Amino acid sequence: MKPIHGLLMGATMTFALISCNNKNTADGDASTDSLMESTDMATTYKVVPGKYVDLNTGKEIYIIRDDNNGYATDSIAKVPVEFYINADTKDTLYRTGMVVNNLLVEEDGKWMLDETKVKIDGDEIKLKDGDAKIKMDGEESKVKDGDYKKKVDGDESKIKNGDYKEKRDGDDVKIKDGDTKIKIEDGEVKEKN
Questions:
Q1: What is the pLDDT of residues 69-86, one digit of tens each?
Q2: Cβ-based neighbours of 78, under 8 Å, separated by 6 or more
Q3: What DSSP letter does each residue of 121-158 carry, written as one string?
Q4: For residues 96 and 70, is the Cβ–Cβ distance under 8 A?
Q5: From the CB of residue 141, how many other CB atoms can be counted at a distance below 10 Å?
Q6: Does residue 142 contact residue 148 with C-beta atoms inside 8 Å?
Q7: 72/31 Cα distance (integer angstroms)
Q8: CB 62 within 8 A of CB 72
Q9: Are 173 and 182 in contact (CB under 8 A)?
Q10: pTM of this structure
Protein backbone atom coordinates (compact mmCIF):
# COMPACT_ATOMS: atom_id res chain seq x y z
CA MET A 1 0.00 0.00 0.00
CA LYS A 2 2.95 2.35 0.59
CA PRO A 3 3.87 2.62 -3.16
CA ILE A 4 0.30 3.71 -3.96
CA HIS A 5 0.40 6.20 -1.08
CA GLY A 6 3.61 7.70 -2.47
CA LEU A 7 2.20 7.89 -5.97
CA LEU A 8 -0.98 9.54 -4.76
CA MET A 9 1.12 12.09 -2.89
CA GLY A 10 3.02 12.76 -6.10
CA ALA A 11 -0.17 13.02 -8.10
CA THR A 12 -1.22 15.97 -6.00
CA MET A 13 1.39 18.07 -7.77
CA THR A 14 -0.58 17.67 -10.94
CA PHE A 15 -4.19 17.91 -9.82
CA ALA A 16 -4.03 20.49 -7.06
CA LEU A 17 -6.14 23.18 -8.70
CA ILE A 18 -8.99 21.32 -10.43
CA SER A 19 -12.56 21.97 -9.24
CA CYS A 20 -15.04 19.43 -7.79
CA ASN A 21 -17.18 17.20 -10.04
CA ASN A 22 -20.57 15.78 -9.13
CA LYS A 23 -22.62 13.75 -11.63
CA ASN A 24 -25.70 15.47 -10.25
CA THR A 25 -24.56 19.01 -11.12
CA ALA A 26 -23.82 20.82 -14.36
CA ASP A 27 -20.71 22.69 -13.17
CA GLY A 28 -18.26 19.80 -13.44
CA ASP A 29 -16.19 21.20 -16.31
CA ALA A 30 -12.74 22.29 -15.19
CA SER A 31 -10.38 24.49 -17.13
CA THR A 32 -7.29 22.66 -18.31
CA ASP A 33 -5.44 25.97 -17.81
CA SER A 34 -5.58 25.33 -14.06
CA LEU A 35 -4.45 21.76 -14.70
CA MET A 36 -1.40 23.01 -16.58
CA GLU A 37 -0.62 25.55 -13.85
CA SER A 38 -0.77 22.82 -11.26
CA THR A 39 1.72 20.60 -13.12
CA ASP A 40 4.41 23.18 -12.46
CA MET A 41 3.89 23.25 -8.71
CA ALA A 42 6.93 22.02 -6.80
CA THR A 43 5.10 21.13 -3.61
CA THR A 44 3.63 17.86 -2.52
CA TYR A 45 0.63 17.59 -0.29
CA LYS A 46 0.27 15.84 3.00
CA VAL A 47 -2.41 15.66 5.63
CA VAL A 48 -2.50 18.96 7.52
CA PRO A 49 -4.15 18.79 10.96
CA GLY A 50 -7.17 21.05 11.38
CA LYS A 51 -10.94 21.46 11.18
CA TYR A 52 -12.55 20.01 8.08
CA VAL A 53 -15.92 18.62 6.94
CA ASP A 54 -16.21 14.88 6.30
CA LEU A 55 -17.58 14.69 2.74
CA ASN A 56 -19.56 11.49 3.33
CA THR A 57 -21.17 12.49 6.66
CA GLY A 58 -21.28 16.29 6.31
CA LYS A 59 -20.05 16.60 9.91
CA GLU A 60 -17.28 18.92 11.06
CA ILE A 61 -14.26 16.95 12.25
CA TYR A 62 -10.73 17.61 13.41
CA ILE A 63 -8.28 15.77 11.16
CA ILE A 64 -4.91 14.47 12.29
CA ARG A 65 -2.31 12.50 10.34
CA ASP A 66 -1.98 8.80 11.19
CA ASP A 67 1.76 8.28 11.72
CA ASN A 68 1.58 4.65 10.55
CA ASN A 69 0.18 5.24 7.06
CA GLY A 70 0.08 9.04 6.64
CA TYR A 71 -3.70 9.06 6.13
CA ALA A 72 -6.22 11.58 7.43
CA THR A 73 -7.84 10.38 10.64
CA ASP A 74 -10.73 11.74 12.71
CA SER A 75 -8.98 12.80 15.94
CA ILE A 76 -11.93 11.84 18.16
CA ALA A 77 -13.33 8.69 16.51
CA LYS A 78 -9.79 7.54 15.54
CA VAL A 79 -11.05 6.27 12.17
CA PRO A 80 -9.64 7.05 8.70
CA VAL A 81 -11.46 9.73 6.70
CA GLU A 82 -11.47 9.03 2.97
CA PHE A 83 -12.65 12.44 1.67
CA TYR A 84 -12.84 15.74 3.52
CA ILE A 85 -13.42 19.38 2.64
CA ASN A 86 -11.31 22.39 3.54
CA ALA A 87 -14.01 25.04 4.16
CA ASP A 88 -11.54 27.92 3.61
CA THR A 89 -10.28 26.84 0.16
CA LYS A 90 -13.36 24.79 -0.86
CA ASP A 91 -10.98 21.96 -1.87
CA THR A 92 -11.95 18.33 -1.46
CA LEU A 93 -9.08 16.21 -0.21
CA TYR A 94 -8.34 12.49 -0.35
CA ARG A 95 -7.11 10.63 2.74
CA THR A 96 -3.48 11.29 1.65
CA GLY A 97 -3.97 15.06 1.54
CA MET A 98 -4.22 15.00 -2.26
CA VAL A 99 -6.65 17.57 -3.70
CA VAL A 100 -9.23 15.55 -5.65
CA ASN A 101 -11.51 18.26 -6.99
CA ASN A 102 -13.12 17.11 -10.25
CA LEU A 103 -12.03 13.51 -9.62
CA LEU A 104 -15.03 12.34 -7.57
CA VAL A 105 -18.41 10.83 -8.25
CA GLU A 106 -21.33 10.20 -5.91
CA GLU A 107 -23.03 6.82 -6.03
CA ASP A 108 -25.81 5.83 -3.65
CA GLY A 109 -24.94 8.73 -1.31
CA LYS A 110 -21.25 7.76 -1.06
CA TRP A 111 -18.36 9.66 -2.66
CA MET A 112 -15.55 7.82 -4.44
CA LEU A 113 -12.78 8.44 -6.94
CA ASP A 114 -14.12 8.53 -10.50
CA GLU A 115 -12.65 5.43 -12.15
CA THR A 116 -13.04 7.05 -15.58
CA LYS A 117 -10.54 9.74 -14.51
CA VAL A 118 -8.25 7.93 -12.06
CA LYS A 119 -6.70 4.53 -12.68
CA ILE A 120 -4.27 2.89 -10.26
CA ASP A 121 -2.32 -0.14 -11.46
CA GLY A 122 0.42 -1.17 -9.06
CA ASP A 123 2.92 1.70 -8.92
CA GLU A 124 1.35 3.50 -11.86
CA ILE A 125 -1.33 6.21 -11.67
CA LYS A 126 -3.16 7.57 -14.71
CA LEU A 127 -5.32 10.68 -14.47
CA LYS A 128 -7.57 12.01 -17.22
CA ASP A 129 -9.58 15.23 -17.29
CA GLY A 130 -11.10 16.08 -20.65
CA ASP A 131 -8.27 16.06 -23.19
CA ALA A 132 -5.58 16.37 -20.49
CA LYS A 133 -3.78 13.17 -19.50
CA ILE A 134 -1.24 12.55 -16.76
CA LYS A 135 0.72 9.36 -16.14
CA MET A 136 2.89 8.88 -13.06
CA ASP A 137 5.16 5.99 -12.19
CA GLY A 138 7.58 6.58 -9.34
CA GLU A 139 9.71 9.64 -10.15
CA GLU A 140 8.57 9.63 -13.78
CA SER A 141 5.58 11.60 -15.00
CA LYS A 142 4.09 12.61 -18.33
CA VAL A 143 1.51 15.31 -19.00
CA LYS A 144 -0.25 15.86 -22.30
CA ASP A 145 -2.89 18.45 -23.12
CA GLY A 146 -3.26 19.39 -26.78
CA ASP A 147 0.10 20.82 -27.95
CA TYR A 148 1.43 20.95 -24.38
CA LYS A 149 3.64 18.03 -23.31
CA LYS A 150 5.76 17.64 -20.20
CA LYS A 151 7.95 14.71 -19.22
CA VAL A 152 9.75 14.51 -15.86
CA ASP A 153 12.23 11.85 -14.78
CA GLY A 154 13.85 12.74 -11.47
CA ASP A 155 15.87 15.97 -11.99
CA GLU A 156 15.39 15.89 -15.76
CA SER A 157 12.40 17.44 -17.50
CA LYS A 158 11.27 18.31 -21.01
CA ILE A 159 8.46 20.67 -21.96
CA LYS A 160 7.06 21.24 -25.44
CA ASN A 161 4.28 23.70 -26.22
CA GLY A 162 3.96 24.61 -29.88
CA ASP A 163 7.24 26.27 -30.94
CA TYR A 164 8.46 26.46 -27.31
CA LYS A 165 10.81 23.74 -26.05
CA GLU A 166 12.55 23.51 -22.69
CA LYS A 167 14.94 20.89 -21.36
CA ARG A 168 16.23 20.82 -17.78
CA ASP A 169 18.88 18.59 -16.26
CA GLY A 170 19.47 19.64 -12.68
CA ASP A 171 20.50 23.32 -12.84
CA ASP A 172 21.28 23.23 -16.59
CA VAL A 173 18.54 24.56 -18.86
CA LYS A 174 18.07 24.77 -22.64
CA ILE A 175 15.17 26.79 -24.06
CA LYS A 176 14.14 27.23 -27.68
CA ASP A 177 11.30 29.63 -28.42
CA GLY A 178 10.89 30.15 -32.16
CA ASP A 179 14.28 31.39 -33.38
CA THR A 180 15.57 32.30 -29.91
CA LYS A 181 17.76 29.84 -28.01
CA ILE A 182 18.82 30.21 -24.38
CA LYS A 183 21.29 27.95 -22.61
CA ILE A 184 22.05 28.08 -18.90
CA GLU A 185 25.01 25.91 -17.94
CA ASP A 186 27.07 26.15 -14.76
CA GLY A 187 25.27 29.41 -13.92
CA GLU A 188 26.30 31.02 -17.24
CA VAL A 189 23.52 32.29 -19.55
CA LYS A 190 24.03 32.23 -23.33
CA GLU A 191 21.44 33.53 -25.78
CA LYS A 192 21.24 33.17 -29.58
CA ASN A 193 18.76 34.91 -31.85
A1: 888 999 999 999 999 999
A2: none
A3: ETTEEEEEETTEEEEEETTEEEEEETTEEEEEETTEEE
A4: yes
A5: 21
A6: no
A7: 28
A8: no
A9: yes
A10: 0.54
